[in-house]
Amino acid sequence: MEVSMKEFLSMWKYRSMFMLFIFSVLLYLILLLPFESGFISFDLKDFQPLAALPIVLGLFFGPAGVLGVGVGAFFVDIYGGLSLMTIFMVSGNMLMALLSYRLWDKFFVQTDSELMIPKSDKRNFLINLFLVVSVAAMAKAFIIGLGHIILTDGVFYTKGISVFINDALGGLLLSIIAIVLFLNRFRIWEMIWSDLMRPGDMDIESIFGAWISLVCILFFFLFSLVASLFNNNMLVIIFGSLGLLGIIIGLFWKGKVS
Fold first, then answer.
1. How many Cβ atoms from other residues are within 10 Å of residue 165's Cβ?
2. Which of 7, 69, 124, 159 falls between 20 and 30 A from 152, CA-CA?
3. Does residue 227 belong to any structural domain of this protein?
């Protein structure tokens, strides 16, 4: 088995990718910092669609968006007070951004010339987008819920379900708005990451690896919910650890199965 991380290393050769990284950090801070600091607040039962911003940044900016989300989430969390939970928050947001563009590429883009670009005119586009957004949101909920149990001995299903619903609905809403309003403009301005990097510098995991990640997210998230309903936190931690291991293996699995 080979590992696939090439786009995260080769992106630094491109000045435009570095600028997308900086842009992602600034956009994340500008949009989310006011809510975290309490400067802006809404009484909508904690529904925060902007929390799903990593999905849009991942789809549009690829690895630059993923790293930008990580840095941005870290600085935003400073206002809430750094803690061990910050590790889970940053990891969850980065994984959500990473899965959004990698799963989209493997399951819903058919030619290399359209690599990782969300096609607004694609047949069944909304269904495809909903599937990718839901899985990415589930992965973040998986990590946040697991951290909630490990650090606070809380209940996995309450935290996991609330994060999943918020990010799935918010991610779908934000993605549709961003694609309709900005996709063509970003293409003209050369801000879509797969238009900027040479094909040889983009080394995405195999379809088999994508299926590993997808199955692990769905299987272990659901089993963790069931275990949580029976108040078995130790079993949730075991399922969570196995699920995260499977997701990581799937994301960085390259090539054919021997």
1. 13
2. 69
3. no
Return the CATH number at 70: 1.10.1760
Residue 22: what pLDDT? 97
| 3-state secondary structure (DSSP) of residue 206 | coil
Question: Tell me: the pLDDT tens digits for 220-236?
Answer: 888 888 888 888 888 88
Helix (H) or strand (E) holding 3: strand 2-3
Burial of 175 (0-12, 13-18, 19+ CB in 10 A): buried
pLDDT 10s digits, 141-185: 889 988 888 888 777 878 888 888 888 888 888 888 888 888 888
Instruction: Tell the burial category of 103 from Cβ atoms under 10 Å away from its Cβ (0-12, 13-18, 19+).
Output: buried
Residue 185: domain span? 2-204
DSSP 128-155: HHHHHHHHHHHHHHHHHHHHHHHHH---
User: For the chain, what is the mean pLDDT?
Assistant: 80
Q: Is 253 helix (H, G, I), strand (E, B) or coil?
A: strand
Residue 90 lies in a domain: yes
The pairing of strands 2-3 and 253-254 is antiparallel
Cβ density class 194-211: b for 16+ within 10 Å, e for less: bebbeeeebbbbbeebbb
Two tokens, residue 53: 């911003």
